[in-house]
Write a structure and sequence with these properties.
The protein is an alpha/beta fold and about 400 residues long. The chain is elongated and about 75 Å long. The chain has 14 helices and 15 strands. The chain binds L-homoserine.
Amino acid sequence: MAKIALMGHGVVGSGVAEIVMKSAQSLAKKAGTPIEIKYILDLRDFPELSYSDKFIKDFDIILGDPEVSVVVEVMGGLHPAYDFVKASLQAGKSVVTSNKELVAAKGAELLAIAAEKHVNFLFEASVGGGIPIIRPLHQCLGANEITEIAGILNGTTNFILTKMIREGSTFDAALAEAQRLGYAERNPAADVEGMDACRKICILASLAFGSHIYPDKVPTQGITQITPEDVQYASDWGGVIKLLGRAKLGGDKKVQIAVSPCFISRESQLASVDDVFNGILVRGDATGDVVFYGKGAGKLPTASAVVADIIDVLKAQDTIATLHWKDGDGSNLADPDAEELESYLRVSGPNAAQAVQQAFGPCTELHRADAPAEEFACILPAMAAALRRAKLEELEARGIAVLGSIVVAEV
Ligand code: HSE
């Protein structure tokens, strides 16, 4: 009998408890031993639950109980999650977590402690909700050098964009529904400002490229500036707007990494990833493109990934050596200002078309119905981000308002 402790009984934690109790027999077969949740740590009381006797409020009870071999952290946030996870690993307990903030901030350190103590620190649920992506990256795709990862990594923003495009919902109404469905972070700014997607691309890139990439090193932009007009122009161009996390290995072995809304072609496999679904494209030197698709948020999809990690921990004889990266200082990152991409531009002002062409040279004009006479939109040729920014500043200095600027991603 394996005894585990669950830290957090929110959306994901309650899903983990539900699956562990409902599927006890099949999980016992898969793990090679029955699984019992001995404790659930939560500050709240849940007297209505049939398992209300398991709730505790003191982490030291878990830490001090030698029967507990696996700690499942689904509290979210950095503190106290980091302190509890670190102490658990140091005490020789394996840890399973869904906490992307924790892994993105402390992954290298916690993996090193797990290895030193011959236990495991697993976090399949931290990226892509129910989609298997961490395990495929370090196991199934182990024969490859990964050259690029690009993904729709945030279910909430994808849900919002889909609702705005398909149903004409307002941003606020779509966000409120995402919150009601349990997709959004406690502070949904982390979703809509791109931080959540940033943490996830950092985790994937750290694993794929071998050294820790910290979120504060990654240029990050969310979806709050996207307007229905931009969506119409994307459609005229032949594509859609998606919030992408992108990480690409250059010929110089530097990683170009960013999070931002992107124009992507309708032909892209990511273009039809809608609602709360996530899609992650992994390019390997042997496999070519592999695309992972599934529900990126929500109670049971995320709990499914947590429970799969619990099974793996219980089957493992030692630390899983392939799930590893070293600490990083950012020296393996390419200069974001040097990234050369095409981009969409929407401006407004007197003689806007002429001003844009004077600044940028010839560009491909885009159209939408009922555009005001002073509005102009086009696809600009590929140029370095720094040069584009300087030219946009020039335009604004000449009285042209920049209403939208979105890079074109080839994915
Ligand atoms: N808020 C996150 C999302 C939850 O919307 O993708 C899953 O990580």
